[in-house]
Design brief:
Largest sheet of chain A: 3 strands, antiparallel
Structural class of chain A: alpha+beta
Largest interface: A-B, 65 and 65 residues
Strand order of the largest sheet of chain A: 1-3-2
Helix content of chain A: 55-70%
Order of helices and strands of chain A: HHHEHHEEH
Radius of gyration of chain A: 20 Å
Shape of chain A: elongated
Oligomer: homodimer
Distance between the termini of chain A: 42 Å
Number of helices of chain A: 6
Number of strands of chain A: 3
Strand content of chain A: 5-15%
Chain lengths: 116, 116
DNA sequence: TCATCAGTTGAACAACCGCTCAACTACGAA
DNA sequence: TTCGTAGTTGAGCGGTTGTTCAACTGATGA
């Protein structure tokens, strides 16, 4: 049993071994954390919650949330790169909407955590 | 329609007004973001995933994850304060486990997002 | 063609966050 | 009581992150 940085002995070796055998790739945990990190900012949550109800353009989102277009655009870029939102262009406007209903499910589960 | 910081005009006033009427308290979004933020770190996700399988003490977690007791303890404190994990003391050991299965549900939904 | 406006981008800054380190508490064994 | 070990804590650091600012692109309409 490897524990290079751990500054202590293993107490319950059987349990540690069992849990270790069910551990997933380190990459998987990083991906998972990266996903949840996107839900870990109030502005982004507000954007996602708004898009849950309606496709919206950057300008309207900025007005709705009371922040600059630039701030919204930066956040939308993060959300787009992680495929949580999709967008279509129509002339000068960029219309954003949720990529799939996974996003809605995750948000709802979060709301549930407080409202039950 | 208020849009103090927004550096643009509202384009679709009807949509903005409708979405605005369904907006929740700013506090709610902050709470939600704070919750998801806890899932937004690989070490914490690994801790939660381990605890999903077994109640564990700090020392074993540290050995399992290859980090110091201190690092684990700091993370467990955050998780404890937000009631995502609970713990019981038995002599020198502190045994941690998931507070309820909301945590498991959220994690599973995250895994689903990648493995489907 | 030129002005205007929606949206994007990158740099810079301040705030935040996770880890380390060292000191500490608390419990158990001798 | 004294020592050893599990666990906690606070300060400090280095890296990350969200916003602002200014400059830019690209489409529209005069």
């Amino acid at each position: 049993m490897e524990h290079p940085l751990c500054d202590c002995e293993i107490i319950h070796e059987d349990i540690v071994r069992e849990v270790q055998s069910r551990q997933l790739d380190r990459e998987t945990y990083i991906s998972l954390a990266t996903l949840f990190k996107l839900f870990g900012d109030a502005t982004r949550v507000r954007i996602l919650h708004a898009l849950e109800q309606h496709e919206m353009c950057v300008c309207d989102l900025a007005a709705l949330l009371g922040v600059t277009k630039s701030a919204v655009s930066h956040q939308l870029k993060s959300l787009r790169l992680s495929r949580l939102v999709k967008y279509r262009r129509d002339g000068q406007n960029a219309y954003y909407s949720l990529a799939d209903d996974h996003v809605k499910k995750i948000l709802d589960l979060g709301f549930e955590h407080f409202f039950e």
